[in-house]
Design a protein that fits this description.
With 304 residues, the chain is an alpha/beta fold. The chain folds into two domains: 8-117 and 290-301, ATPase, nucleotide binding domain (Nucleotidyltransferase, domain 5, 2-Layer Sandwich); 129-285, Nucleotidyltransferase, domain 5 (2-Layer Sandwich), CATH 3.30.420.40. It is built from nine helices and twelve strands. The chain has a five-stranded mixed beta sheet with strand order 3-2-1-4-7. A five-stranded mixed beta sheet has the order 10-9-8-11-12, sandwiched between helices. Strand 1 (8-13) and strand 2 form a beta hairpin. Helix 5 crosses helix 6 (214-238) and helix 6 crosses helix 7 (254-267). The radius of gyration is 19 Å and the shape is globular. It starts with 7 loop residues before the first strand and ends with a helix.
Length: 304
């Protein structure tokens, strides 16, 4: 392929994979590279470097451009420090991901919480600047955009709705609490409740439920009810105009939106106050081929 001029690079670091994109001056994705995420501080850096090297090969550009990184956990963007990113194996002491990755790549690196980065990508994709982005990936977290600006919180914890306990008899979450929403609704929770020998558990579960399997229907509905609970909490707190479902599980597309919308409707069936808010009507799922989190990370890298 002919070399292209790349203006920014974005990395979406997840519990199972790291996706990198290169954007041109119009914001168009000109290359994508995906690698399995090596867990732990050193593994995350190593994987990120491999992805950027892959983008260099794919574009024919040396990529001397800003790099934005979206990663789960508590992030201090100003310092490029990550804490408590349990889904990628970063625990304990604050980890200076921005500085270490910048040294390895030789370019400026900006770090942001992955849900926040995806939120910026969702704003750019939908044209709505007042929204909540609910990321259902390895974990569960939300990004909040008000008038197109992120709300990160004093300690970078705004939107960590996955770590709100809702089931005192539930399982212990990776955060140390018991019965968090993330233990009910996340890629990890779904894989534990519907294990498969091959393929994606979410695809298998929803296919079995659509075929009428009673156990699959029960597991799907519990999963959807957890997402609906998270959305209800978020909407009653910040009342966004739009709720975008994202993350790996959202690759399901419309079946996921319908299941969650149905759960929201069920929860509001005997609550006129909730029904009047029309939470199901606010739901959107972006096309599965839109790498919204990586694109948002690239926007973070350029200071947008």
């Amino acid at each position: 392929m002919e070399p292209v001029t790349v203006m920014s690079v974005g990395l979406d670091v997840g519990g199972t994979k790291t996706l990198g994109v290169a954007l041109d001056e119009t914001g168009r994705v000109v290359a994508q590279v995906r690698r399995p995420t090596d867990r732990g501080p050193a593994g995350v850096v190593r994987t990120a470097v491999e992805v950027v090297d892959g983008l260099r090969d794919a574009t024919g550009d040396r990529l001397a451009v800003p790099v934005g990184v979206g990663i789960p956990g508590l992030v201090d963007g100003g310092l490029g420090i990550v804490r408590h990113a349990v889904n990628v194996g970063i625990t304990g002491e604050p980890f200076p991901l921005g500085r270490l990755l910048s040294e390895r790549l030789g370019v400026s690196v900006t770090v942001e919480n992955d849900a926040n980065a995806a939120t910026l990508g969702a704003v750019a994709q939908t044209g709505h600047d007042d929204l909540v982005y609910l990321s259902i990936g390895t974990g569960l977290a939300a990004g909040l955009a008000f008038d197109g600006r992120l709300r990160r919180g004093e300690h970078g914890a705004a939107g960590e709705v996955g770590h709100i306990p809702v089931d005192p008899d539930g399982v212990v979450c990776g955060c140390g609490q018991t019965g968090c929403i993330e233990t009910i609704t996340s890629g990890s929770a779904l894989a534990a409740s519907w294990p498969v020998a091959q393929g994606h558990p979410a695809d298998a579960l929803f296919a079995a439920a659509a075929a009428g399997d009673p156990k699959a229907i029960a597991v799907r509905d519990r999963f959807a009810a957890g997402a609906a609970t998270a959305i209800r909490i978020l909407c009653l707190t910040v009342d966004p105009g739009l709720v975008v479902l994202g993350g790996g599980v959202a690759q399901l597309g419309e079946p996921l939106r319908i299941a969650v919308a149905t759960a929201l409707g069920d929860q509001a069936a005997e609550a006129p106050f909730l029904a009047a808010l029309d939470l199901p009507g606010r739901l959107r799922v972006l096309p599965p081929d839109v790498p919204v989190a990586a694109v948002g990370a690239a926007l973070v890298g350029t200071g947008r």
